[in-house]
Design a protein that fits this description.
The structure is a homodimer. Chain A is mainly β. Chains A and B meet through strand 2, strand 5, strand 7, strand 8 and strand 10 of A and strand 2, strand 5, strand 7, strand 8 and strand 10 of B. Strand 2 of chain A pairs antiparallel with strand 2 of chain B, so a sheet runs across the interface.
């Protein structure tokens, strides 16, 4: 989707992105087929959506059902990447890209924390997404608040300031 | 850092990642130069760390100081990407990659929520990171809990189930 510059918005001149490669590991299924219909912010009491993994990864989700909330990363692939100052209200007032949760940002990565009411046929059903149907999935992991590391302690665990 | 397979861990055969390109927008400065010294999990009362943007983006952070907490995305670039089942305790018991917050995951992207006590000379100082010094920065944005969209309403905002 093109994003025409609004009054006072600013961009940066960017060389092609090249520092790291992302692999999409699946797709997100939501009720919104048009970006203009998406909620602007996730709602934990929102619509039923599905987090579908590609076949390569379908063996992997063992254990996710131990968590009631899950964090999902996805690619907001209809946005531009070069805006430094954005005008969300198109009124000439701008905020820095890193002071917004706008989908318009250099690496197009969105994150949501969502409720995980159930897993059906290996597919997590969630509430709390606001992205469009078919959005590329980058990652999913337990919500940090519910997660306790399983690995042995490391020195930094007990380091004090 | 190589990750030798532990008992019962499983991998998937992957073609090179190619779906999306990530641009690193800066570096994270932390006290930990060796991965083995990092805390396994972020601590909101943890050490002072810095989120440094590359020169291209240094004009952009306007407005971040309105938030007491900030979300940061970064690349855990010392990990392997192909593990489907991991054994955090090296004891033969495994969990699926997507049921862990392990740095070993397909797209190597870590997320942290951290306290933002101050910005000095345009550089946010934060507490709550656990990654190594020099970790590539992918994004930073206000914590979702503190953020209210600035943009006009969209139909999905008021959609009910």
């Amino acid at each position: 989707m093109p994003h025409d510059l609004r009054e006072n918005e600013q961009i940066v001149q960017l060389a092609p992105a090249s520092d790291g490669l992302v692999r999409f590991i699946g797709r997100i299924r939501t009720p919104w087929t048009d970006r203009a219909d998406c909620p602007r912010q996730e709602r934990i009491d929102g619509h039923d959506c599905r987090i579908e993994l590609d076949p390569d990864w379908q063996d992997a989700p063992d254990g996710l059902d131990a968590y009631g909330t899950v964090e999902v990363l996805y690619r907001m692939d209809q946005s531009r990447r070069d805006l430094t100052h954005q005008s969300p209200r198109s009124d000439g007032c701008t905020l820095g890209t890193f002071a917004l949760r706008s989908p318009t940002r250099p690496d197009l990565i969105g994150t949501s924390i969502m409720r995980l009411p159930r897993i059906e046929g290996g597919v997590p059903h969630v509430q709390g997404l606001n992205c469009g149907d078919g959005t590329p999935l980058i990652d999913r992991k337990p919500d940090r608040c519910a997660f306790t590391p399983n690995a042995p302690e490391q020195p930094g665990d007990i380091q004090t300031v």
